[in-house]
Amino acid sequence: EAGVAQSPRYKIIEKRQSVAFWCNPISGHATLYWYQQILGQGPKLLIQFQNNGVVDDSQLPKDRFSAERLKGVDSTLKIQPAKLEDSAVYLCASSLAPQGTYEQYFGPGTRLTVT
Amino acid sequence: GENVEQHPSTLSVQEGDSAVIKCTYSDSASNYFPWYKQELGKRPQLIIDIRSNVGEKKDQRIAVTLNKTAKHFSLHITETQPEDSAVYFCAARVDNDMRFGAGTRLTVKP
């Protein structure tokens, strides 16, 4: 089966600019996750969707980050305005369901550099 | 929320030796514990997982043990090979909340 797709793979922006990332989960996967992985650290969950509803966004910096999954399939994550500390790899993952099938499949990530 | 600590942060072993990575978690309600391998510049990939109703699980050279009382779980890799070199992440999940450890960089020297 096709894996989780993400684009772009790399992005370089200046601080205070805006950026958006796109994710297409594995077909049929109801649950979609966005993680932030800072160099040398483990992935940190930013937001979790179940279909098009938000399940958990407790760690999302809502003053600058936003995410949507309007039709319950693709998702976009936006940062506006970006800060230097937002430099990280943004990983999208999907799973069939949060509890029924636990395995999360990760996409290749988008490496963001904020200068 | 859940807090996961992982040790050591770096581990270097000789090819053929065993490697052990340990994680502790804080929330006794956690019921799912996956381990991911992440090679440089690549996505994390699940290598083995264990659920809270199981104490040990093995898959060829990889095994995971879980001690619910002590709230810790470990990854064991036997007969290590150079291609095992990567960063390994443990994670613990309670309800919808999955928390990852900081990672262990494993280097297997030929």
Q: Can you describe this structure?
A:
The complex is a heterodimer of chains A (115) and B (110). Chain A has strands at 5-7, 10-13, 19-24, 31-37, 44-50, 53-56, 65-68, 75-79, 88-95, 105-106, 110-114. By secondary structure, chain A is an all-beta fold. In chain A, the strands form two sheets. In chain A, strands 2, 4, 5, 6, 9, 10 and 11 form a seven-stranded mixed sheet that branches. A four-stranded antiparallel sheet of chain A has the order 1-3-8-7, with no helix packed on it. The relative contact order of chain A is 0.33. Chain B starts with a strand and ends with a strand. Chain B is mainly β and 110 residues long. At the A-B interface, strand 5 and strand 10 of A face strand 4, strand 5, strand 9 and strand 10 of B.
In short:
The complex is a heterodimer of chains A (115) and B (110). Chain A has 115 residues and is an all-beta fold.
- What percentage of residues of chain A falls in helices of 4 or more residues? under 10%
Give the oligomeric state: heterodimer
Overall average pLDDT of chain B? 94
- Distance N terminus to C terminus of chain B? 41 Å
Name the helix and strand elements of chain A from N-terminus to C-terminus, one letter apiece.
EEEEEEEEEEE
Proportion of residues in β-strands of chain A: over 45%
